[in-house]
Specification:
The chain has eight helices and two strands, in the order H-H-H-H-H-H-H-H-E-E. With about 240 residues, it is mainly α. A two-stranded antiparallel sheet has the order 1-2. Helix 3 packs across helix 6. The chain is globular and about 60 Å long. The two termini are about 35 Å apart.
């Protein structure tokens, strides 16, 4: 019985790794596609819907700049995180990502309020950009103070906020398939908020849970902790 259980666990290991690899590959492909689409749209925007075409006319320099830097942020932030164990690469890529996010965040404000689809959607994009920049400042301050865990948490939260660009397009595509056109403005306004808030909240909860687990593990491993009602000490047998 024990052998069969061990074989089941062993068999599940490769399967879980394969499924995880496929999920990560799908996410990477989706993020890369969204980034490439944003970069391409900065220069080829003849087929833009009217709501975006107006922004291009009103902001002929700022709008393409926002699209380029926003698309690059989708690529640079995951790259910087992947290189976190290689300081020689992580630092320059991280600085480049920070500069890129700064430009993308600042240009998001005029883009949001130039001929907005609705005031609520403009407010949603503004809140996203503000959250982006606040997390950037907090993350930079944390790493300068040597608080690596806080810096990592801020960067993960910033990446989650960035992923709103991907989810925003996913939700729009789903709405195009099943939604009603007369309710599009309402959905668009909701999408401008939930696209980045949901991944931000999910990431914050995951970080909090991980920190709680680490704190619990540290407490159990400390010399003064108790196991089965008996205190552990360096002299304990």
């Amino acid at each position: 019985m024990e052998q069969s259980s061990g074989e089941a666990v062993g068999a599940g290991g490769p399967l879980r790794r394969t499924v995880l690899a496929l999920i990560l590959a799908a996410i990477a492909g989706l993020v890369t596609y969204t980034a490439g689409k944003a970069l391409w749209s900065a220069f080829a925007n003849d087929d833009f819907p009217e709501s975006l075409a107006v922004k291009v006319e009103l902001l002929p320099l700022i709008f393409p700049l926002h699209m380029v830097t926003g698309g690059l942020a989708l690529l640079l932030l995951p790259l910087a995180y992947a290189l976190r164990h290689r300081p020689a690469w992580h630092r320059p890529v991280g600085r480049l990502a920070a500069a890129d996010v700064l430009v993308a965040g600042l240009t998001a404000f005029p883009v949001a309020w130039a001929a907005p689809v609705t005031l609520w959607s403009a407010a949603g994009f503004t809140a996203q950009a503000t959250t982006w920049l606040v997390l950037l400042v907090l993350g930079i301050r944390a790493i300068r103070q040597g608080r690596i865990a806080v810096h990592r948490a801020c960067m993960l939260l910033m990446a989650a906020t960035t992923s709103g660009a991907v989810f925003f397009r996913i939700y729009l595509a789903l709405w195009a398939m099943v939604g009603a056109r007369r309710q599009f403005d309402t959905f668009y306004a909701c999408d401008a908020w939930i696209a980045w808030l949901l991944p931000l909240i999910a990431t914050a909860l995951a970080i909090r849970r991980f920190a709680a687990r680490q704190a619990s593990s540290s407490t159990l491993a400390s010399p003064g902790s108790k196991v089965i009602g008996r205190p552990l000490s360096p002299q304990a047998p």
